[in-house]
Amino acid sequence: MFKTPDYISNLKPYVPGKSIEELEREFGLTEIHKLASNENPLGHSPLANESMMKMINEINRYPDVGAVKLREKISEKFGIPFKNIAVGSGSEGIMANLLRCYLCEEDEMITSEATFIGFQVLARGRANKTHYVPMSKKTYKFDLNGILDRINTNTKMIYLCNPNNPTGTIITKKEFDEFHKQVPQGVMIILDEAYFEYADIHDEYPNSLFYRYDNVVTFRTFSKIYGIAGLRIGYAMGQEDIVTTLMKSKLPFEPNTLAQAAALGALDDDAFLNKSIELNNHGYEYFKRELAGLEIKGSLKLIPSYANFIMLDLFSEEKVNTVNETLLSRGVIIRPLKPFGLANCIRVTMGLMNENEAFIREFKKLL
Ligand SMILES: Cc1ncc(COP(=O)(O)O)c(C=O)c1O
Known about the structure:
By secondary structure, the protein is of the alpha/beta class. It folds into two domains: 15-43 and 271-366, Aspartate Aminotransferase, domain 1, CATH 3.90.1150; 46-268, Type I PLP-dependent aspartate aminotransferase-like (Major domain) (Aspartate Aminotransferase, domain 2, 3-Layer(aba) Sandwich). The protein is built from 14 helices and 13 strands. The strands form three sheets. The chain has a seven-stranded mixed sheet, with helices on both faces. It has a four-stranded antiparallel sheet with strand order 9-10-13-12. Strands 1-11 form a two-stranded parallel ribbon.
């Protein structure tokens, strides 16, 4: 009855992986391991919890519009001026707002194929043209030269995900430096660092905060290592006028009171952060060890990961479907990557050790 633009009518709803409840219902299982959404298997920090619970009786009041305390804490923790920090309902919420604020009629965006689906959904929700540059099928890394080749006079934004979801690969310091030099100053680079805390232990990973380039906006989240995905809170760092624009155009009362409080507590808990990184490293070493034999036999390829998940190329969509369906029936939820454009691949989040073991046990039976 009411006409919507074609690019909105053509949107397909986001299809998340199966939930634990769905699997319980479908298969009558009691033990389920969800290794599908790159969540923190340790839950969230006790300090985040404490800080949130202190605010629980304040939820009749509206949140702090400017999220001042939280932005001050982020500023202190990362040594970035307050005026360069924006917050919002998840990093995706801030990204959606950035696109709304900056994309004019003729503007175009460039990104890679096989990158974060959330960005692809946001891009498809705009009338603007987005170029998807094929990813190197050998390395599963962004083809930065291919991206540079697509830049034209209408290019307004480039989206890079580092480490990339779902491949787990990174753009190294050297690669980013070379790339940045060739991107015109008038082109904004969106640098999505949702998994930065996991990658930052590697010397070759470029922590974008050291760059302070005027045309780079960095996005980070409390949904991954901080374990509060359900509260919806993220932050972005960029030059002052971009941050001012983001803060004045966001929904006034995002992020919500409990999210702001939990994030404040989470930032204080280095012990929880370190424990999460340690568990992740253990999980990764375990996966590498256990999968090496299958890799030698040519049954799969494990793509080196810098995040809290691994990507496995199983070389056939049929094999992916069989693996996925059988694992589901045995209580292990993983992510088949057809929606990301990688029909032959699966993504598995590093979980608790018993969850990793459950995946390996069932997966090995299958292969
Ligand atoms: C690369 C990337 N960016 C952003 C997000 C979402 O972050 P948020 O929960 O803060 O919106 C995800 C979640 O899967 C992600 O993988």
